[in-house]
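Email to the structure team, subject: Immunoglobulin V-set domain-containing protein model.

Hi all, the expression group asked for a predicted structure before they design truncation constructs. Nothing fancy, just the tokens so they can compare against earlier work. One-line instruction: predict Immunoglobulin V-set domain-containing protein, return tokens.
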Amino acid sequence: MKPSEPPVYILRSFSSKTLVPHYSNRTFRKIFSLQHNSNLFIHNISTNELGVYYCIQYDSPPLISRGIRLYTQNHAAGEFIYYTLYKFNI
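Reply from the structure team: attached below.
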């Protein structure tokens, strides 16, 4: 999510044991993938992927993480970045 933009749904997994998520957009399949234990992997980061990433656990009511901000200070993003969704404090 970028400032002043609404959240973008990237993918959904129905189990922490499955590696086949449901993507909201075909383009996201090339950029994002799901690893073991619900880890999100972002391939070939560009400035388009910079922003805040949230994890939502669908319970009643839904639990939303505080988010992780992906940013760069020199506007040169790295080749890849790896975040564990379990690092989100839900």
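Residues 60 and 68 are 23 Å apart (CA to CA). The beta strands are 11-12, 22-23, 32-35, 39-43, 51-53, 56-57, 63-64, 68-70, 80-84. Ping us if the truncation boundaries need rechecking.
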